[in-house]
Amino acid sequence: MKPPVHVRTIRVEAVEAGPDELEVRGTLLDERPRGERRWEGDDGGRVIHDMTVTLRVRYPDFVITGARGEMASHPYTICPEALPPLEQLVGLSVARGFVRAVQERFGRERGCAHLTALILAMAPVVKQGAGAAFRGEHDAPRDAADLWFINTCQAWREDGPLHSLLKRGDSLAELSSKRRPPRG
Length: 184
What we know:
Helices cover 22% and strands 25% of the residues. By secondary structure, it is α+β, with helices and mostly antiparallel strands. The protein has a 4-stranded antiparallel β-sheet with strand order 1-2-3-4, with helices on one face.
């Protein structure tokens, strides 16, 4: 098998930043394993993009309270001009309409496709991180605002098995893959 011509790696981490705030840091790394030189300022290295976006997000409304970015590697000298507009994320909620709002602010000629892809990859981690940080992974939700995850996937579809168990106040443990015996 031939080596890949392009490899993208995205990593996102969520850390508690206070009693009701998360700091979510995402990195995007684009590499050319063959090391072809094809862009401005290329020194023959493999890394094309090495970008980081850090968001501070308030819980429980998922509103972004801070946004900043860095570019350790980029193909063109003008690429870092895409960083200051990240401030437009402040005030947005990482909830319904977030994808559209990000596309309107940074899509196509208005921003950087790589930063946009990274920001969109970070959004689900904000919610998953908040669930782990502020509710605990096995705690029952306290009110309707805590049910943000309903209809986020087939497992959490409205009135599906998980939602039904939750509404009845039953334990989700019986459906946890960590508790099932191995198949086979």
